[in-house]
Design goal:
68% of the residues lie in helices and 2% in strands. Strands 1-2 form a two-stranded antiparallel ribbon. The longest helix has 33 residues. The protein is globular. The protein starts with 12 loop residues before the first helix and ends in an 8-residue tail after the last helix.
């Protein structure tokens, strides 16, 4: 079989074509990351007039700080809950839409709309819905004897940001699960149905194993989402309160660095957060991917 090869007239042309993307990556990603690593080993006064090298002092202090250790636990709970809820509901919705013969496109379009909403707007929407004074859900919960107040109750505040962050991510997961379901050969389901397997058994023994690459990919994406992209949701709903009950790792970087002006500690926290995500990704590729069926 003949293969076509592209020959560039100049050896520098390929590098010129990728130069814009490389420049953007260096300026907006690599350079800020390098500055954060550098700042994590320094102490700088709030006015930026003097800087001194302190080595690992910021890192050692963080692991002896109760507030930081508590934020690690809150982040783990938040990440696990959002990942399970958003992926679970997205899979259920994808299965339901995939079974539709008519109006499937209409339902898919409607379910994708929330993904176009920014995290801040999503947080404000759920803040209004759960507002203890004017929100409709607290009013309905009072009929069951539950007094909702996320401004005073830390557990209520955590539930609020979990719901808001999950709702924002369901559309993204739904899109990939639906694409995965539509790529499953229908002949496999038909053969299993002829053998007497019911819908539930066909899904768990045939469809779901074939979705394992999609599920594995979404696990990584959702964990990164909860670690980095939920700042807007938290800031718009609870602002880390009450009493630091929703102060996750990404939000603590903001409060310590931007509000508290402790740039060295904030930089160290951002480096540790980045390392957490790298370690989780490596673990997933090293151990979880073994169970993925391609």
């Amino acid at each position: 079989m003949d293969t076509k090869r592209t020959v560039f007239p100049s050896q520098g042309l390929p590098y010129l074509l990728v130069a814009p993307q490389l420049i953007i990556t260096i300026i907006f990603f690599i350079w800020p990351a390098g500055q954060a690593v550098k700042s994590s080993f320094e102490r700088e006064d709030p006015f930026g007039l003097s800087t001194s090298f302190v080595g690992l002092q910021h890192y050692l202090r963080l692991f002896h700080e109760p507030a930081y250790l508590a934020s690690v636990g809150r982040t783990a709970l938040f990440a696990l809950a959002v990942t399970l809820i958003s992926m679970g509901l997205a899979l259920v919705l994808a299965v339901a839409v995939n079974r539709l013969i008519r109006a499937g496109t209409t339902y898919s379009t409607m379910l994708l709309w929330p993904y176009a909403v920014s995290p801040v707007v999503a947080g404000i929407l759920w803040w209004f819905i759960f507002n203890s004074s004017t929100g409709i859900l607290p009013y309905m919960l009072e009929f069951f004897g539950l007094r909702w107040d996320h401004q005073l109750n830390g557990a209520h505040a955590m539930i609020l940001i979990i719901i808001a962050a999950s709702w924002k991510q369901i559309s993204y997961n739904f899109l990939f699960f639906l694409a995965g379901l539509q790529s499953v050969p229908q002949s496999l389901n038909e053969a299993a149905a002829i053998d007497g397997a019911g819908p539930f058994k066909r899904f768990w023994t045939i469809v779901f194993p074939l979705l394992s690459p999609t599920t594995f990919f979404l696990m990584i994406v959702n964990l990164n989402y909860t670690m980095f992209d939920t700042f807007g949701v938290i800031d718009a709903t609870t602002a880390g309160g009450p009493n630091q009950a929703t102060n996750t790792l990404v939000y603590k970087v903001y409060t310590d660095g931007y509000i508290g002006l402790n740039l060295g500690s904030s930089s160290a926290q951002s480096v540790i957060l980045m390392l957490f995500v790298i370690v989780l990704t490596v673990i997933q590729f090293r151990y979880v991917e073994r169970r993925v069926q391609y």
